[in-house]
Amino acid sequence: MTREAVIAAAVRTAVGRRNGGLAGVHPADLSGAVLNALAERAGIDPAVVDDVIWGCVSQVGDQSSNIGRYAVLAAGWPESIPGTTVNRACGSSQQALDFAVQAVLSEQQDVVVAGGVEVMSRVPLGSARASGMPYGPRVLARYEDFSFNQGISAERIAQKWGFTRERLDGYAALSHERAAAAQDSGAFDEQIVSVSGVAADEGVRRGTSVATLARLKPSFQEDGVIHAGNASQISDGAAALLITTPERARELDLIPLVRYRAGAVVGSDPVLMLTGPIPATEKVLRKAGVALSEVGVFEVNEAFAPVPLAWLAETGADPELLNPLGGAIALGHPLGASGAVLMTRMIHHMRAHGIRYGLQTMCEGGGTANATLVELAE
């Protein structure tokens, strides 16, 4: 019998705004809070966990020295439980999920926690590069001294696909509208653990419109179309997923939420950088033997508005199924946590609406992307 992996619990903090309600919480403590919420809501003794695989992008300062291990200790879990930290840029905690599934499917481990954290208020974006240039002269020479600036890449994507600023701002306004509607409906309530009194995502700006966004100046090019309002927000947050087998779930009295069907990771043009979700989607569907038309919800991370719009143009997916609860433009993008945050949102949405298949994909710095397909558990 082929071994399977299921996600049996999915919990996240609310996503805090930069210098907002979570800014005073150390990343290890924020991680510990979400780990304890995961164990409590699943009803398990943390001692059954074989490993914790934790995503984090800026692994310096408060997030240095293997934050995954300190997350375990901050949670007060047994010292015997190990922890490790993964960095695949914005897809770090989605990659943590893939690694956890691989450990379970290979029979090396039976119960693994995957997730991630980023407190960008305390460890700003780019902190890890502050004292050096990670690309090296050969990489720079290969790509004609391109700065590997994601904002410039987003501008190039907008130009290549012919997206006007009005189109991008319209998408950004829709992200806020959908996120506000999701909050008002209580769609996020069950999945969020309150930390420091923050029980709701702080980034949603109600009333955002193309007209209000038109006042913002371009961020990367004087005549550009990318600005703070149609890009993901700098945020704080953490999320965790519990991965095991159906058999072990029964032994632990767990109810599987979704079955992991397939995962894929691809490399793509590092200058356009953010187009990887397009081939990653094709690859993961091919691996799973599932048609695009069978998928009922897509979570495509809104790093910048051109990213999901280019993905939509190339895949031909139903736009009504794309980021139905809003995305990172409205809800924020706490880098290392975002993969697990998106998966948590998607799983709960699938459960609430009886959606069989959900697909999540993330663009990543350096030109890579993860894609994951999950199926609603019976």
From TrEMBL:
One Pfam family hit: Thiolase_C
PROSITE patterns: THIOLASE_2 (PS00737)
Organism of this sequence: Streptomyces hyaluromycini
A molecular-function term among this protein's GO annotations: acyltransferase activity
Family: Belongs to the thiolase-like superfamily. Thiolase family.
PANTHER family per the UniProt record, alphabetical: ACETYL-COA C-ACYLTRANSFERASE (PTHR43365:SF1), BLR7806 PROTEIN (PTHR43365)
EC number: 2.3.1.-
InterPro entries: Thiolase, Thiolase-like, Thiolase_C, Thiolase_CS, Thiolase_N
Group of enzyme by EC: transferase
Keyword Transferase attached: yes
Residue span(s) of domain Thiolase N-terminal: 6-245
Name of the protein this chain belongs to: Thiolase family protein
Keywords: Acyltransferase, Transferase
Domain annotation Thiolase C-terminal: ranges: 256-375
